[in-house]
Amino acid sequence: MSTPTGKIAMLHTVPALAAPLGELAAEVRPGAQIVHFADESLLQDTIAHGGPPPHVLRRLVAYAAFAKESGAETLLVTCSSIGEAAERARPFAELPILRIDQPMAEEAVATGERVGVLATLATTLGPTTRAVRRAAARRGLRREIVPHLCEGAFEALRAGDAARHDALVLAGFGELAGKADVVVLAQASMARIVTRAAAGVPVLSSPRSGVAQLARPPAEG
């Protein structure tokens, strides 16, 4: 069976994620071209408004149009804070729009009854918690969701202090691990701590499973 190629677009609100996510995409779709859009203002405006304001939805629709015009077959939105806006943009787009965290939510509810959701932003904690809750409802499962916000971690990362960010996230994980059967890392930028978060509890992050959605062109999957 031949490996599907084609062109894929990704929309990032953290430009630093473009390189590692592009590498993952190259693994699942060798030969595919990757088009990266980076727009930090989408996240900044979402944080400022406590959630995605209407103009973020409009810009998502515009980025989907840019992706289509560039020849892409799919747009992967890599920011969980605007994941719900990405879903709302789908009816207005001419190509599939995927959330990077959707497969993670599905895996979480299949893994345990108590799902811990760890985030560094309140604007991500809410959407990821709701994504997990909807995933459980689709499967007819009753799941307890235990949210935890790592105060100050996002600000540390934004200030360039990755060590403090990681320390705060690991501390939050330590608090949450004893209360959950599985822990979800709400943001792709948190995936860096997975190998260090060893506490006998499964830890799920979105990059690898989210990018795995791109393994086949939409028409085939």
Main attributes?
alpha/beta, Rossmann fold, 221 residues, 9 helices, 4-stranded parallel sheet, 2 domains, single chain
Write the layout of secondary structure elements.
Blueprint: E1 7-12, H1 18-28, E2 33-38, H2 40-49, H3 54-69, E3 75-77, H4 83-89, E4 97-99, H5 102-111, E5 114-119, H6 122-139, E6 144-149, H7 153-158, H8 162-177, E7 182-185, E8 203-204, H9 206-211
Parallel strand pairs: 1-2, 1-3, 3-4, 5-6, 5-7, 7-8
Helix pairs in contact: 3-4, 5-6
The total domain count is 2
Radius of gyration: 17 Å
Overall, the morphology is: globular
- What is the CATH architecture assignment of the largest domain? 3-Layer(aba) Sandwich
Order of helices and strands: EHEHHEHEHEHEHHEEH
Query: How much helical structure, as a percent, in the residues?
Result: 40-55%
Strand content: 15-25%
The multimeric state of the shown protein is single chain
Ends distance: 15 Å
* Structure annotation, total helices: 9
Structural class: alpha/beta
Parts with pLDDT < 50 across at least 5 consecutive residues: none
* Average predicted local confidence, pLDDT: 90
Q: Enter the CATH topology name of the largest domain.
A: Rossmann fold
**How many strands?**
8
CATH class bucket of the largest domain: Alpha Beta
| Main sheet record | 4 strands, parallel
Strand order of the largest sheet: 2-1-3-4
Family: Belongs to the HyuE racemase family.
InterPro entries: Asp/Glu/hydantoin_racemase (IPR015942), Iso_Racemase_Enz_sf (IPR053714)
Protein name: Aspartate/glutamate racemase family protein
